[in-house]
Design goal:
The chain is mainly alpha-helical. Helix content is 76%, strand content 0%.
Length: 117
């Protein structure tokens, strides 16, 4: 029987990796005056940290989750991190359309994690 750590570590690592990736992809939007080449290089550096967290998350996670479950988990975490980032960092509102769209994705995640039909 896998330990609780094997079930939780991928969730924690994927969450942390998504924070880094969200900053790598969208953090530069608050700095439009910085040259594109510079933000690309900075983003690559941030993305390296993301990879250093995501790869172990998936390696460990595949011991207790299927690849489809890991990918689904990563997408739900990505949307959650992005929603918080968008409101807190970018100061952009989450609209009803966003909530409905994210809810449909969450419903898809529910289906993935259900027992096979």
């Amino acid at each position: 029987m896998p330990t609780l750590w094997l079930w939780l570590a991928p969730i924690f690592l994927l969450s942390l990796s998504n924070v880094f990736m969200t900053f790598a992809w969208y953090g530069h939007l608050k700095f439009p005056h910085v040259a594109l080449w510079a933000v690309v290089l900075i983003s690559w550096g941030i993305a390296l940290i993301e990879y250093m967290l995501a790869v172990p998350a998936n390696r460990l996670g595949h011991r207790v989750y299927s690849a489809a479950e890991l990918k689904t988990m990563q997408e739900v975490i990505t949307l959650t991190v992005f929603a918080v980032f968008s409101v807190v960092y970018l100061k952009e509102p989450i609209t009803l359309n966003h909530v409905l769209g994210f809810s449909l994705i969450a419903a898809g995640a529910f289906v993935i994690f259900r027992a096979p039909l």
